Amino acid sequence: MEVQLANQQMAQAIKQVVKKAFLTSEHGYQGEAELVEDLRDSTTPTFERVVIWNQHLVGHMLLSEANVAESKGLVLAPLSVLPAFQRHGVGKALMASAEEIAKDYDYAFISILGDSQYYGRFGYQPAKNFEIKAPMDVPDEAFLIKRFTQTVQQPGILEYAPAFGI
């Protein structure tokens, strides 16, 4: 298993991984592959990584720049792993890569809208603990954040990249 930078030649394989991963998820597919394409085509700074396993693309994640007041951070959306490769460390490897990017580029936080039990294992907490709010109506337990610096301005509303349409 190897985490690599995503490239344009991987676009179709990434789209298939994202769709297959979300089709079997609790909330189903909600246009995550199109979001990846929109973010990729936008002017928002993004970071995109894939996991290659035996020469097959089996996982993908995309980070896009976001803000809370004056603090710059990242949003992880989406994180996708082919169903047959879930529970094999692929998601964990992608999470480690995401956090490495945040630290290397001095981002203050990563925000995730997802399963608090899964992401809680990586130290993500409800954003409300830091007085950070979502710009849309979401359950508190699903709107998560992990701070990498103490400089996240509080309170504040997370500003997503325009491609999210929020």
Instruction: Give the tally of β-strands.
Output: 9
Summarize the biggest pleated sheet. 9 strands, mixed
**Which structural class is indicated by helix and strand composition?**
alpha+beta
Provide the CATH architecture. 3-Layer(aba) Sandwich
Describe, in plain words, how this protein is organized in 3D:
The protein has 166 residues and is of the alpha+beta class. It has one domain: Gcn5-related N-acetyltransferase (GNAT) (Aminopeptidase, 3-Layer(aba) Sandwich). The chain has helices at residues 11-23, 32-41, 90-104, 116-120; strands spanning 2-5, 46-53, 56-68, 71-81, 109-113, 125-126, 132-133, 143-147, 156-159. Strands 1, 2, 3, 4, 5, 6, 7, 8 and 9 form a nine-stranded mixed sheet that branches. Strand 3 and strand 4 form a beta hairpin. Helix 1 packs antiparallel against helix 2 (32-41). The longest helix has 15 residues, at 90-104. The protein is globular.
Per-chain topology:
Blueprint: E1 2-5, H1 11-23, H2 32-41, E2 46-53, E3 56-68, E4 71-81, H3 90-104, E5 109-113, H4 116-120, E6 125-126, E7 132-133, E8 143-147, E9 156-159
Parallel strand pairs: 4-5, 7-9
Antiparallel strand pairs: 1-2, 2-3, 3-4, 3-9, 5-8, 6-8
